[in-house]
Amino acid sequence: MASTIFTPEEEAFRESVIEFVKKKVGPYAEQIEKTNEIPQQIIESIGKAGYFGMAYPKKYGGQEKGVLYHCIVVEELAQASGSVSMCRNATIYSGVPIMLFGTEDQKQKFLRPIAEGRSLGSICITEPEVGSDTARMQTKAVLDGSAGEWILNGTKRFITNGGLGQHTVWAITNPATPRKGMSCFIVPKGTPGLTVEKRFDLMGMRGVQNVQLKFDNVRVPQANMIGGLHQGFDILMRMFVTERATATSEATGLMQGAIKTAKDYAKKRVQFGQPIAQFQEIRHMIAEMVTECYAARLMLYNLCKRIDAGGNPFEEAAMAKLFAASRGIQICLNAIQICGGDGYTKDYPVERYLRDMKLMQIGGGTDQIQKLIIAREELGR
Questions:
Q1: Quick one: which of 353, 373, 377 has its CA closest to 85?
Q2: Do 239 and 340 share a domain, yes or no?
Q3: 172-193 average pLDDT score
Q4: What is the spatial distance between Cα 130 and Cα 358, in angstroms, rounded to a whole number?
Q5: Which residues contact 99 (CB under 8 A, 6 or more apart)?
Q6: What is the pLDDT of residues 226-268, one digit of tens each?
Q7: What is the tens place of the pLDDT at every residue in 293-313?
Q8: Type and span of the H or E element at 364
Q9: CB of 329 closer than 8 Å to CB of 358
Q10: Cα–Cα distance between 335 and 258 in angstroms, integer?
Q11: pLDDT (mean) for 52-58
Q12: Cβ count near 281 (within 10 Å)
């Protein structure tokens, strides 16, 4: 199946990632679930392998391979540990605005540490009262011209890697027209006034540090604004395309992990004198699962190639994420059903795949928002 999606070079890279994940990530999956922490050596090994910088230019410490190679890494990491993949993904999201809109100095100072795996990163968008309607965000940034600094005040929540590295933060710089008055800033870890108020205890993605951040008169230099004044909303929309491609690949990775577990179980589990894989209903369930996964992967890698060709496929990103997330949930449910009572225990990873998969219908834009985007593109506002 893989050869119909990837070139020989891409397939060889995928095989190398599979081997890396098998050695460096897979053995720790259960430990991450139980301790709710990702061992630091996993993050360091991902950095040393160059996997944080797959899509970033070589001149800034990246591999310059593009979003397609980035998503190959996502798929394989997600099969072993969705939380490890999510930690890496959030870091990469934080660098995308800098890569697309940042100054040369910002790229050397802030993008390079991410690309080289020396710093984690986060994107700070969601707030206690603001989710999909980003233009309603309450976090404000006010310019102190005499000091040459922006002062940020507000609260951000559900921030993956919050407090662990540098933060790419969206704030309102013109409250009169918030959608056209939003700007984007780089706030390094440890900046005075930036505090972690709480860590969320998540249903899935165990091990990820997902927190609420308080910005209390946080001062950053004017040079830390990404792009121009009030360009934040445009930056956000561009970043969403990469984020949704990444979420799609996370979903397809989780799908593949669930399918593999279900197939292995069906071949070994004997009932009524034969492996349950011999029963037609189980065979039909597996057939549907692999077909839907294959379709999702084709959508994903077509999307990646369009992004790598310089496009901004906003609608296609919404379509791919919507399909992969919605079908991924059903695939995980079917995997649990095939595993029966065992699937309902933590002895098998299928229940973890389901819990992790649910986030794909929420983060990066809910299923409902994806439908809104697609309908708007097809039918107009």
A1: 353
A2: yes
A3: 93
A4: 20
A5: 55, 56, 57, 60, 107, 111
A6: 999 999 999 999 999 999 999 999 999 999 999 999 999 999 9
A7: 999 999 999 999 999 999 999
A8: none
A9: yes
A10: 6
A11: 96
A12: 10
Kindly state whether residues 223 and 253 are assigned to the same domain. no
Conformation bin of residue 48: beta by default, left when phi > 0, alpha when psi is -120 to 50: alpha
Beta-bridged to residue 168, according to DSSP, are: 123, 186
CA–CA gap between residue 313 and residue 63 (Å, rounded): 23
Residue among 175, 179, 131, 173 nearest 156 (CA): 131
Q: What CATH number is attached to the domain comprising 197? A: 2.40.110.10
Long-range contacts from 276-284, C-beta under 8 angstroms, 24+ separation? 276/338, 282/338
Per-residue pLDDT of 117-138, as tens digits, reads 999 999 999 999 988 888 889 9
Candidates 127, 243, 292, 351; catalytic one? 243
- Tokens 């029966």: give the residue: 340
Cα separation, 256 vs 322, in Å, equals 17
Tokens of 235: 């930056």
- Asked whether 11 and 17 are in contact (CB, 8 A), the reply is no
State whether 255 and 195 are in the same domain. no
Active-site annotation holds for 19: no
- Between residues 148 and 381, the one the model is more confident about: 148
Take residue 95 and report the two structure tokens written for it.
């660098």
**Closest-CA residue to 171 (of 107, 114, 215):** 215
Q: Does the predicted TM-score (pTM) go above 0.90?
A: yes
Q: Give residue 168's identity as a one-letter amino acid code.
A: T
Q: Identify whether the C-beta of residue 199 lies closer than 8 Å to the C-beta of residue 239.
A: no
Query: What is the number of domains present in the chain?
Result: 3
* Residue from 187, 301, 169 nearest 239 by CA: 169
Q: CA-based Rg of the chain, rounded to a whole angstrom?
A: 21
Q: Where does the pLDDT of residue 381 fall: very low under 50, low under 70, confident under 90, or very high at 90 and above?
A: confident
Instruction: List, in order, residues 6 or more apart from 342 with CB less than 8 Å away.
Output: 265, 269, 348
173 pLDDT above the threshold of 60: yes
Considering the domain architecture, whether residues 108 and 132 belong to the same structural domain is answered as: no
Residue closest to 160 by CA, chosen among 103, 72, 84, 265: 84
